[in-house]
Automatic annotation (TrEMBL):
Belongs to the short-chain dehydrogenases/reductases (SDR) family. The chain crosses the membrane at residues 89-118. Keywords: Membrane, Oxidoreductase, Transmembrane, Transmembrane helix. It holds the Pfam family adh_short. Signal peptide: none annotated. The lineage of its organism: Eukaryota, Viridiplantae, Streptophyta, Embryophyta, Tracheophyta. One of its GO terms (cellular component) is endoplasmic reticulum. One of its GO terms (molecular function) is ketoreductase activity. It comes from the Eukaryota. InterPro entries: NAD(P)-bd_dom_sf, Sc_DH/Rdtase_CS, SDR_fam, VLCFA-Steroid_DH. It comes from Iris pallida. It is found in: Endoplasmic reticulum. This is Very-long-chain 3-oxoacyl-CoA reductase 1-like. PROSITE patterns: ADH_SHORT.
Length: 396
Protein backbone atom coordinates (compact mmCIF):
# COMPACT_ATOMS: atom_id res chain seq x y z
CA UNK A 1 0.00 0.00 0.00
CA UNK A 2 2.78 2.42 0.84
CA UNK A 3 4.35 1.81 -2.61
CA UNK A 4 1.12 2.87 -4.31
CA UNK A 5 0.82 5.92 -2.13
CA UNK A 6 4.34 6.87 -2.90
CA UNK A 7 3.75 6.54 -6.67
CA UNK A 8 0.67 8.78 -6.55
CA UNK A 9 2.46 11.37 -4.47
CA UNK A 10 5.47 11.38 -6.80
CA UNK A 11 3.19 11.80 -9.82
CA UNK A 12 1.36 14.60 -8.11
CA UNK A 13 4.26 16.83 -7.09
CA UNK A 14 5.51 17.84 -10.59
CA UNK A 15 1.91 18.68 -11.45
CA UNK A 16 1.67 21.11 -8.58
CA UNK A 17 5.04 22.66 -9.28
CA UNK A 18 4.20 23.11 -12.98
CA UNK A 19 0.84 24.80 -12.57
CA UNK A 20 1.06 26.65 -9.32
CA UNK A 21 1.48 30.36 -9.91
CA UNK A 22 3.40 31.16 -6.68
CA UNK A 23 7.20 31.14 -6.34
CA UNK A 24 8.62 27.91 -4.96
CA UNK A 25 9.44 29.00 -1.40
CA UNK A 26 5.78 29.80 -0.90
CA UNK A 27 4.41 26.63 -2.45
CA UNK A 28 3.29 24.28 0.25
CA UNK A 29 1.28 21.20 -0.38
CA UNK A 30 -0.39 19.38 2.46
CA UNK A 31 -1.42 16.10 0.89
CA UNK A 32 -0.47 13.02 2.76
CA UNK A 33 0.18 10.20 0.35
CA UNK A 34 -1.92 7.89 2.55
CA UNK A 35 -4.88 10.21 2.15
CA UNK A 36 -4.53 10.18 -1.63
CA UNK A 37 -5.74 6.60 -1.89
CA UNK A 38 -8.82 7.13 0.29
CA UNK A 39 -12.08 7.26 -1.73
CA UNK A 40 -13.01 10.51 0.03
CA UNK A 41 -9.73 12.03 -1.27
CA UNK A 42 -9.65 11.53 -5.04
CA UNK A 43 -6.34 12.22 -6.74
CA UNK A 44 -6.44 15.89 -7.69
CA UNK A 45 -6.13 16.90 -11.30
CA UNK A 46 -3.90 19.67 -12.66
CA UNK A 47 -6.90 21.92 -12.49
CA UNK A 48 -7.39 21.18 -8.80
CA UNK A 49 -3.75 21.90 -8.17
CA UNK A 50 -3.79 25.38 -9.57
CA UNK A 51 -6.55 26.14 -7.09
CA UNK A 52 -4.41 25.19 -4.08
CA UNK A 53 -3.78 28.06 -1.64
CA UNK A 54 -0.15 28.96 -0.94
CA UNK A 55 -0.38 27.73 2.66
CA UNK A 56 -0.52 24.10 1.50
CA UNK A 57 2.67 22.26 2.29
CA UNK A 58 4.75 20.05 0.04
CA UNK A 59 4.68 17.26 2.44
CA UNK A 60 4.47 14.08 0.50
CA UNK A 61 8.00 13.07 1.50
CA UNK A 62 7.36 14.14 5.08
CA UNK A 63 4.14 12.14 4.94
CA UNK A 64 6.07 9.10 3.79
CA UNK A 65 8.53 9.50 6.62
CA UNK A 66 5.69 9.85 9.12
CA UNK A 67 4.03 6.79 7.72
CA UNK A 68 7.21 4.74 8.03
CA UNK A 69 7.69 6.02 11.53
CA UNK A 70 4.17 4.95 12.48
CA UNK A 71 4.70 1.55 10.90
CA UNK A 72 7.93 1.14 12.81
CA UNK A 73 6.18 2.25 15.99
CA UNK A 74 3.46 -0.31 15.46
CA UNK A 75 5.99 -3.01 14.69
CA UNK A 76 8.04 -2.23 17.79
CA UNK A 77 4.82 -2.00 19.82
CA UNK A 78 3.85 -5.48 18.67
CA UNK A 79 7.37 -6.69 19.33
CA UNK A 80 7.38 -5.34 22.90
CA UNK A 81 3.88 -6.72 23.48
CA UNK A 82 4.99 -10.10 22.19
CA UNK A 83 8.17 -10.00 24.25
CA UNK A 84 6.30 -9.14 27.45
CA UNK A 85 3.62 -11.78 26.98
CA UNK A 86 6.02 -14.56 25.97
CA UNK A 87 8.40 -14.19 28.99
CA UNK A 88 7.67 -15.42 32.53
CA UNK A 89 6.95 -12.68 35.09
CA UNK A 90 9.98 -13.54 37.25
CA UNK A 91 12.29 -13.03 34.28
CA UNK A 92 10.73 -9.67 33.47
CA UNK A 93 11.06 -8.60 37.10
CA UNK A 94 14.67 -9.72 37.17
CA UNK A 95 15.40 -7.82 33.95
CA UNK A 96 13.77 -4.68 35.38
CA UNK A 97 15.85 -4.95 38.56
CA UNK A 98 18.99 -5.50 36.46
CA UNK A 99 18.22 -2.48 34.31
CA UNK A 100 17.56 -0.27 37.34
CA UNK A 101 20.79 -1.48 38.97
CA UNK A 102 22.68 -0.67 35.79
CA UNK A 103 21.16 2.83 35.74
CA UNK A 104 22.05 3.34 39.41
CA UNK A 105 25.61 2.10 38.91
CA UNK A 106 26.08 4.33 35.84
CA UNK A 107 24.81 7.34 37.74
CA UNK A 108 27.05 6.60 40.75
CA UNK A 109 30.08 6.12 38.53
CA UNK A 110 29.51 9.35 36.59
CA UNK A 111 28.95 11.21 39.84
CA UNK A 112 32.19 9.73 41.23
CA UNK A 113 34.13 10.90 38.16
CA UNK A 114 32.62 14.36 38.50
CA UNK A 115 33.37 14.62 42.24
CA UNK A 116 37.00 13.51 41.97
CA UNK A 117 38.10 14.90 38.61
CA UNK A 118 35.80 17.69 37.45
CA UNK A 119 34.19 19.44 40.41
CA UNK A 120 35.94 22.70 41.28
CA UNK A 121 37.17 23.24 44.85
CA UNK A 122 35.35 25.80 46.97
CA UNK A 123 36.96 29.16 47.49
CA UNK A 124 38.14 28.61 51.06
CA UNK A 125 38.71 32.32 51.63
CA UNK A 126 34.93 32.86 51.54
CA UNK A 127 34.62 31.10 54.92
CA UNK A 128 36.91 33.61 56.63
CA UNK A 129 40.53 34.70 56.66
CA UNK A 130 41.84 32.42 59.46
CA UNK A 131 42.05 28.66 59.92
CA UNK A 132 42.59 26.76 63.18
CA UNK A 133 44.47 23.45 62.77
CA UNK A 134 45.02 21.01 65.62
CA UNK A 135 47.88 18.51 65.47
CA UNK A 136 49.65 20.84 63.04
CA UNK A 137 53.21 19.83 63.95
CA UNK A 138 53.38 16.60 61.99
CA UNK A 139 51.80 14.43 59.29
CA UNK A 140 48.47 15.39 57.80
CA UNK A 141 47.90 18.45 60.04
CA UNK A 142 51.25 19.97 59.08
CA UNK A 143 50.50 19.36 55.38
CA UNK A 144 47.11 21.08 55.78
CA UNK A 145 48.91 24.08 57.30
CA UNK A 146 51.29 24.42 54.33
CA UNK A 147 48.46 24.04 51.81
CA UNK A 148 46.21 26.61 53.49
CA UNK A 149 49.09 29.09 53.81
CA UNK A 150 49.72 28.73 50.06
CA UNK A 151 46.10 29.79 49.53
CA UNK A 152 46.71 32.93 51.61
CA UNK A 153 44.79 31.80 54.71
CA UNK A 154 46.17 32.98 58.08
CA UNK A 155 46.80 30.21 60.60
CA UNK A 156 46.28 29.40 64.24
CA UNK A 157 48.49 26.35 64.76
CA UNK A 158 47.65 24.19 67.75
CA UNK A 159 50.17 21.65 69.05
CA UNK A 160 51.57 20.17 72.23
CA UNK A 161 55.23 20.83 71.48
CA UNK A 162 56.26 24.53 71.36
CA UNK A 163 59.58 23.79 69.60
CA UNK A 164 57.85 21.85 66.82
CA UNK A 165 55.25 24.62 66.53
CA UNK A 166 58.01 27.25 66.07
CA UNK A 167 59.80 25.06 63.53
CA UNK A 168 56.66 24.50 61.45
CA UNK A 169 55.80 28.21 61.67
CA UNK A 170 59.17 29.31 60.34
CA UNK A 171 59.16 26.80 57.48
CA UNK A 172 55.66 27.93 56.45
CA UNK A 173 56.72 31.60 56.60
CA UNK A 174 59.76 30.82 54.45
CA UNK A 175 57.38 29.60 51.72
CA UNK A 176 54.41 31.92 52.31
CA UNK A 177 55.82 35.07 53.92
CA UNK A 178 52.58 37.05 53.73
CA UNK A 179 50.47 34.85 56.03
CA UNK A 180 50.00 35.58 59.71
CA UNK A 181 50.55 32.66 62.08
CA UNK A 182 49.66 32.29 65.77
CA UNK A 183 50.76 29.35 67.93
CA UNK A 184 48.71 27.87 70.77
CA UNK A 185 50.27 25.18 72.92
CA UNK A 186 47.77 22.59 74.15
CA UNK A 187 48.49 19.06 75.28
CA UNK A 188 45.16 17.41 74.52
CA UNK A 189 46.05 14.51 76.76
CA UNK A 190 46.81 16.97 79.60
CA UNK A 191 44.86 19.92 80.94
CA UNK A 192 42.50 20.24 78.01
CA UNK A 193 40.02 22.60 79.65
CA UNK A 194 42.52 25.38 80.36
CA UNK A 195 44.21 24.76 77.01
CA UNK A 196 40.95 25.33 75.17
CA UNK A 197 40.35 28.50 77.23
CA UNK A 198 43.70 29.80 75.92
CA UNK A 199 42.62 28.96 72.39
CA UNK A 200 39.39 30.92 72.91
CA UNK A 201 41.41 33.96 74.00
CA UNK A 202 43.73 33.69 70.99
CA UNK A 203 40.91 33.54 68.46
CA UNK A 204 38.76 36.26 70.04
CA UNK A 205 38.04 38.83 67.32
CA UNK A 206 39.63 36.74 64.55
CA UNK A 207 37.63 35.86 61.43
CA UNK A 208 38.10 32.09 61.83
CA UNK A 209 36.49 30.46 58.79
CA UNK A 210 38.03 26.99 58.88
CA UNK A 211 38.64 24.53 61.71
CA UNK A 212 40.55 21.32 61.05
CA UNK A 213 40.26 18.89 63.95
CA UNK A 214 43.19 16.69 63.02
CA UNK A 215 45.09 15.90 66.27
CA UNK A 216 44.85 12.20 66.93
CA UNK A 217 46.61 9.30 68.57
CA UNK A 218 46.41 5.57 68.13
CA UNK A 219 47.94 2.44 69.70
CA UNK A 220 51.73 2.05 69.55
CA UNK A 221 50.90 -1.24 67.81
CA UNK A 222 47.96 -3.65 67.59
CA UNK A 223 46.88 -5.01 70.98
CA UNK A 224 44.02 -6.99 72.45
CA UNK A 225 41.75 -4.74 74.50
CA UNK A 226 42.81 -6.40 77.79
CA UNK A 227 46.47 -5.69 76.94
CA UNK A 228 45.89 -1.96 76.44
CA UNK A 229 47.55 0.17 79.13
CA UNK A 230 45.58 2.78 81.04
CA UNK A 231 47.63 5.68 79.69
CA UNK A 232 47.11 4.82 75.98
CA UNK A 233 43.41 4.22 76.49
CA UNK A 234 42.97 7.53 78.34
CA UNK A 235 44.94 9.58 75.82
CA UNK A 236 43.06 8.15 72.81
CA UNK A 237 39.75 9.10 74.39
CA UNK A 238 41.02 12.53 75.50
CA UNK A 239 42.82 13.55 72.30
CA UNK A 240 40.51 12.01 69.70
CA UNK A 241 37.12 12.42 71.36
CA UNK A 242 37.29 15.12 74.04
CA UNK A 243 39.83 17.28 72.19
CA UNK A 244 37.77 17.44 68.98
CA UNK A 245 34.57 18.09 70.94
CA UNK A 246 35.98 20.88 73.11
CA UNK A 247 37.89 22.67 70.32
CA UNK A 248 34.76 22.63 68.13
CA UNK A 249 32.74 24.00 71.05
CA UNK A 250 35.25 26.85 71.39
CA UNK A 251 35.40 27.78 67.69
CA UNK A 252 31.82 27.30 66.48
CA UNK A 253 30.13 30.26 68.28
CA UNK A 254 32.14 32.76 66.19
CA UNK A 255 31.15 30.91 63.00
CA UNK A 256 27.49 31.01 64.01
CA UNK A 257 27.79 34.76 64.62
CA UNK A 258 29.39 35.34 61.21
CA UNK A 259 27.02 32.81 59.55
CA UNK A 260 29.86 31.05 57.75
CA UNK A 261 32.48 28.42 58.39
CA UNK A 262 33.85 25.00 57.48
CA UNK A 263 34.73 22.34 60.04
CA UNK A 264 36.75 19.32 58.93
CA UNK A 265 37.00 16.46 61.40
CA UNK A 266 39.53 13.79 60.54
CA UNK A 267 37.95 10.39 61.04
CA UNK A 268 39.39 7.10 59.87
CA UNK A 269 38.65 4.21 57.56
CA UNK A 270 39.10 2.06 60.69
CA UNK A 271 35.63 3.12 61.82
CA UNK A 272 33.81 3.53 58.53
CA UNK A 273 35.39 1.71 55.59
CA UNK A 274 36.09 -1.63 57.26
CA UNK A 275 33.42 -3.30 59.40
CA UNK A 276 35.79 -3.74 62.36
CA UNK A 277 39.35 -2.91 63.34
CA UNK A 278 40.29 -5.72 65.72
CA UNK A 279 43.17 -5.00 68.10
CA UNK A 280 42.57 -1.27 67.62
CA UNK A 281 39.12 -1.22 69.24
CA UNK A 282 39.43 2.02 71.24
CA UNK A 283 40.98 3.94 68.33
CA UNK A 284 38.30 2.75 65.87
CA UNK A 285 35.53 3.51 68.37
CA UNK A 286 36.90 7.02 68.97
CA UNK A 287 36.76 7.64 65.20
CA UNK A 288 33.21 6.29 65.03
CA UNK A 289 32.38 9.02 67.57
CA UNK A 290 33.98 11.60 65.23
CA UNK A 291 31.90 10.31 62.33
CA UNK A 292 28.57 10.55 64.13
CA UNK A 293 29.50 13.82 65.88
CA UNK A 294 30.26 15.34 62.44
CA UNK A 295 27.10 14.04 60.82
CA UNK A 296 24.88 15.48 63.56
CA UNK A 297 26.66 18.85 63.48
CA UNK A 298 26.38 18.87 59.69
CA UNK A 299 22.60 18.66 59.96
CA UNK A 300 22.45 21.08 62.93
CA UNK A 301 24.49 23.83 61.29
CA UNK A 302 24.00 23.54 57.53
CA UNK A 303 21.26 26.18 57.64
CA UNK A 304 23.55 28.48 59.60
CA UNK A 305 26.13 28.62 56.80
CA UNK A 306 28.54 26.16 58.45
CA UNK A 307 29.71 23.11 56.48
CA UNK A 308 30.71 20.27 58.80
CA UNK A 309 32.48 17.32 57.25
CA UNK A 310 34.10 14.09 58.41
CA UNK A 311 37.02 13.10 56.20
CA UNK A 312 37.86 9.42 56.16
CA UNK A 313 41.45 8.67 55.18
CA UNK A 314 42.70 5.13 54.72
CA UNK A 315 46.47 4.70 55.14
CA UNK A 316 48.57 7.88 54.75
CA UNK A 317 52.38 7.74 55.03
CA UNK A 318 52.91 9.38 58.45
CA UNK A 319 54.40 8.70 61.85
CA UNK A 320 51.07 7.36 63.14
CA UNK A 321 50.72 4.79 60.35
CA UNK A 322 54.41 3.83 60.75
CA UNK A 323 54.70 4.07 56.96
CA UNK A 324 57.59 6.15 55.67
CA UNK A 325 57.33 5.69 51.91
CA UNK A 326 54.26 6.80 50.05
CA UNK A 327 52.74 4.74 47.22
CA UNK A 328 49.67 4.81 44.98
CA UNK A 329 47.31 3.61 47.71
CA UNK A 330 49.25 5.21 50.60
CA UNK A 331 49.70 8.87 49.71
CA UNK A 332 52.12 11.26 51.37
CA UNK A 333 50.56 13.68 53.86
CA UNK A 334 51.00 16.46 51.31
CA UNK A 335 49.19 14.57 48.51
CA UNK A 336 46.42 13.70 50.94
CA UNK A 337 46.01 17.30 52.17
CA UNK A 338 45.88 18.69 48.62
CA UNK A 339 43.10 16.23 47.74
CA UNK A 340 41.38 16.90 51.06
CA UNK A 341 41.09 20.66 50.56
CA UNK A 342 39.26 20.12 47.25
CA UNK A 343 36.45 18.42 49.16
CA UNK A 344 35.97 20.94 51.95
CA UNK A 345 32.41 22.28 52.04
CA UNK A 346 30.80 19.46 50.07
CA UNK A 347 29.61 16.05 51.39
CA UNK A 348 29.16 15.51 55.15
CA UNK A 349 31.42 12.45 54.88
CA UNK A 350 34.06 11.78 52.25
CA UNK A 351 37.31 10.04 51.54
CA UNK A 352 39.06 12.69 49.49
CA UNK A 353 41.95 10.76 47.94
CA UNK A 354 40.45 8.92 44.95
CA UNK A 355 42.43 5.62 45.17
CA UNK A 356 41.16 5.37 48.78
CA UNK A 357 37.65 5.89 47.49
CA UNK A 358 38.13 3.14 44.88
CA UNK A 359 39.38 0.78 47.62
CA UNK A 360 36.36 1.65 49.76
CA UNK A 361 34.11 0.74 46.85
CA UNK A 362 35.87 -2.61 46.34
CA UNK A 363 35.73 -3.43 50.05
CA UNK A 364 32.00 -2.69 50.14
CA UNK A 365 31.49 -5.49 47.61
CA UNK A 366 33.11 -8.12 49.84
CA UNK A 367 31.36 -10.03 52.63
CA UNK A 368 31.98 -8.39 56.02
CA UNK A 369 33.09 -11.66 57.63
CA UNK A 370 35.83 -12.06 55.01
CA UNK A 371 37.12 -8.52 55.70
CA UNK A 372 36.94 -9.14 59.48
CA UNK A 373 39.04 -12.31 59.13
CA UNK A 374 41.59 -10.67 56.86
CA UNK A 375 41.88 -7.66 59.20
CA UNK A 376 42.30 -9.86 62.28
CA UNK A 377 45.15 -11.77 60.63
CA UNK A 378 46.75 -8.52 59.47
CA UNK A 379 46.56 -6.94 62.94
CA UNK A 380 47.81 -10.08 64.72
CA UNK A 381 50.86 -9.83 62.50
CA UNK A 382 51.39 -6.18 63.49
CA UNK A 383 51.03 -7.20 67.16
CA UNK A 384 53.67 -9.88 66.79
CA UNK A 385 56.13 -7.43 65.22
CA UNK A 386 55.37 -4.83 67.92
CA UNK A 387 55.95 -7.35 70.71
CA UNK A 388 59.27 -8.40 69.17
CA UNK A 389 60.33 -4.75 68.99
CA UNK A 390 59.33 -4.26 72.65
CA UNK A 391 61.30 -7.36 73.65
CA UNK A 392 64.39 -6.11 71.79
CA UNK A 393 64.12 -2.72 73.52
CA UNK A 394 63.95 -4.44 76.94
CA UNK A 395 67.04 -6.49 76.15
CA UNK A 396 69.08 -3.40 75.27
N1 LIG B 1 48.09 8.27 58.89
C1 LIG B 1 47.06 7.48 58.66
O1 LIG B 1 47.20 6.43 58.01
C2 LIG B 1 45.70 7.87 59.14
C3 LIG B 1 44.62 7.11 58.70
C4 LIG B 1 43.37 7.47 59.12
C5 LIG B 1 43.19 8.55 59.95
N2 LIG B 1 44.24 9.29 60.38
C6 LIG B 1 44.00 10.41 61.26
O2 LIG B 1 44.63 11.56 60.76
C7 LIG B 1 44.97 12.44 61.82
C8 LIG B 1 46.40 12.86 61.68
O3 LIG B 1 47.21 11.72 61.80
P1 LIG B 1 48.68 11.63 61.21
O4 LIG B 1 48.74 10.38 60.47
O5 LIG B 1 49.06 12.89 60.58
O6 LIG B 1 49.45 11.41 62.58
P2 LIG B 1 50.82 12.02 63.12
O7 LIG B 1 51.78 12.21 62.01
O8 LIG B 1 51.21 11.19 64.28
O9 LIG B 1 50.37 13.47 63.63
C9 LIG B 1 49.50 13.61 64.68
C10 LIG B 1 49.45 15.05 65.15
O10 LIG B 1 48.65 15.10 66.34
C11 LIG B 1 49.42 15.69 67.37
N3 LIG B 1 49.14 15.18 68.69
C12 LIG B 1 49.29 13.90 69.12
N4 LIG B 1 48.99 13.84 70.44
C13 LIG B 1 48.69 15.09 70.83
C14 LIG B 1 48.34 15.66 72.07
N5 LIG B 1 48.28 14.95 73.19
N6 LIG B 1 48.09 16.98 72.12
C15 LIG B 1 48.18 17.73 71.03
N7 LIG B 1 48.52 17.27 69.84
C16 LIG B 1 48.78 15.96 69.73
C17 LIG B 1 50.86 15.35 67.00
O11 LIG B 1 51.74 16.22 67.69
P3 LIG B 1 53.32 15.89 67.78
O12 LIG B 1 53.91 16.42 66.53
O13 LIG B 1 53.76 16.64 68.98
O14 LIG B 1 53.47 14.42 67.91
C18 LIG B 1 50.82 15.58 65.51
O15 LIG B 1 50.90 16.94 65.21
C19 LIG B 1 44.67 11.68 63.10
O16 LIG B 1 43.45 12.12 63.63
C20 LIG B 1 44.56 10.25 62.66
O17 LIG B 1 43.74 9.50 63.49
C21 LIG B 1 45.50 8.96 59.98
Amino acid sequence: MSTNNERHAVMFIPAVLEFHPYPLPYITLSFNSAQLLQPSHPIPSHKDCTALPSSFRISSSIGRKKERKEERKMESGHFVEHLLSSRPAWLLLLSAVGFLSFLKFSFLFLNWVFVFFLRPAKNLGKYGSWAVITGSTDGIGKAFAFQLARRGIDLVLVGRNPDKLREVTSSILAKSPKVQIKNVVIDFAGDLVSGVERLKEEIRGLDVGILINNAGVSYPYAKFFHELDEETMRSIIKVNVEGTTRVTHAVIPGMVERKRGAIVNIGSGAAIVIPSDPLYAVYAASKAYIDQFSRCLHVEYKNKGIDVQCQVPLYVATKMASIRKSSFFVPSADTYARAALKHVGYEPRCTPYWPHSALWCLLSLLPESAIDNWRLGFCLNIRKKGQLKDARKKDE
